[in-house]
Amino acid sequence: MDLYTALKLGWWATLGIVLIGTAVLMGGDMGVGALLRLVARSDAQRRACLNAIGPHWEGNQTWFVLAGGASFAAFPLLYATAFSALYLLMLLLLWSMLLRPVGFEYRSKLPQRAWRETWDWALVLGGALPMLVFGAAFGQLLLGIGFDLDWNLRSSYAGNAAGLLRPFALLCGALALSLACLQGAAMLMQRCEQPLAERARRCAMAAAVAALGLFAVASVWAGQLDGWELLRHPGSGVAQTPLQQAVAVYPGAWQLGFTRHPALWLLPGLVVLGLLGALAAARARRALAAWRLGALAWVGVLGTAGASLFPFLLPSRTDPSHSLTVWNAASSRDTLLWMSGFALVLLPTVALYTRWCFRVMRGKVRQEEIESSDHAY
């Protein structure tokens, strides 16, 4: 394997790691928001929920920024085509996410019940909708994106916003939301006192069961979808473009990788193991174990999606031969080489700092501390 190929594969894996970090950390915060009105029955309990993730939610969004930065620098053609093809999706995602910082900061500024409940529902929407969109986007990738390219790689698009409402994409969105609710409920079990922690435990168990069922249905359904297979592309050492490849589309193609490499079946196995383990941990009131096993389920879900799609990054439904892959959408060798040097320093630093923050801010959120603190939400 030559250096350029290794760099492409390395950055494909790095992008996957950053997306997993986004799902586990930011997704857990979103899960708390989505569950806010369900687990918390009073204003004091809702404040406890918000302060449970208060020290972390802004920092966790760093992983979302890293995902965008990694795709922009490592796979610029993917970034340009995806953000244009899914423009309405990106706007929906950003608008819903804007509700969160405003809701956190403004919710408790006034004592009126109507004011606070309005922001509570804004936080619910700002937690649930982004995770639905996140999962639906992955479902849409498996269905194909409506775009094609002209001779100078300029893209044109057709019908992608409506595709997010297709049943399979919505199913994937529901799966992502259930996993986020599992992570969020496990966090509330750890950080909140009774009776809020007990309600969160029941929500964690329900979310684990829902995620297990949704993943089973999605797996069977994905096996029957039309999938993309890369038949031919320019050989090693030749300039790679989406206009010099042959792609076939037929039912069951997304399972080719699992057929050729049986070890990949360990990835969906991680999902089942993680969700069953999280269910058992929540039942036993082991909050940290439930959170970690929920994170393992995320690794399995996104790993399964990545293994199914590989080497495709953005399959084209309009003209399959124009699909973007790991091979034809990457930056130059020198760009990837420089980025690898920075990533070897910065990515572990972000991960270690995130770990340190969770360790320093561990412990229960107590009502008397919220009421006496000028910095509490």
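Above is the first protein from milestone M3; the second protein from the same milestone is given next.
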Amino acid sequence: MNEMRPMPGNQVGRNVHRLESRQKATGRAEYTHNIVLPGMLYA
């Protein structure tokens, strides 16, 4: 039978602060499919 061992650093269940949270929640986040560059072609 396998023995359950805690993950190193106690990562499970840990609250992680995300740097992009505020931008996503306010609709100001930039995504790669929204980027427009000079001379860019698209189909």
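Note on the second protein: The radius of gyration is 20 Å.
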